[in-house]
């Protein structure tokens, strides 16, 4: 059971950041494949542990949860061909789901992190989540104030509207959270942690701490899905 990442994985990402070109990458493809396999091996262990409290992860394959190293440069001014990190998204429905989950981002120089929450849900789901926040603000407040959550996370971040969302009053006590278009929270991981067996323990504990928040956002999304199925 792999409980940490090798130093060579961080070294590869660091070197790729300095040499983000196809020719260099092809010359170092064996290092990339080794880093990729290292990450997959760790994810396999992490998924087995996390499935104990998040059944949706049971039986999921690490390679299906990893994001490609190749950047989509078609609509970007930044033409670097490769990402300068390795990452995966663990959630019900896999990497491409709109559902809340756990995002693991590995980047050297203490830039790694484990994040939870929901990222840029589609319009109908966004509306449903806002309604859930409005109706159950006290529940959400208690989740964010829970000591087990606060041990790892400093609150909720994410892109926000500059104005008040349609249908809500600017005096609404939940207005700050209602303005969000994403609700994310992040726990940073140092290189020292990433390359030690503490990585497994820290990731697992941070995932467990953010699961109630994920569940809060998942609830209205699931209800909406059921409603759509009934109407179909």
Automatic annotation (TrEMBL):
Signal peptide: none annotated. This is DUF2461 domain-containing protein. InterPro entries: CHP02453 (IPR012808), UCP028451 (IPR015996). It comes from Rufibacter sediminis.
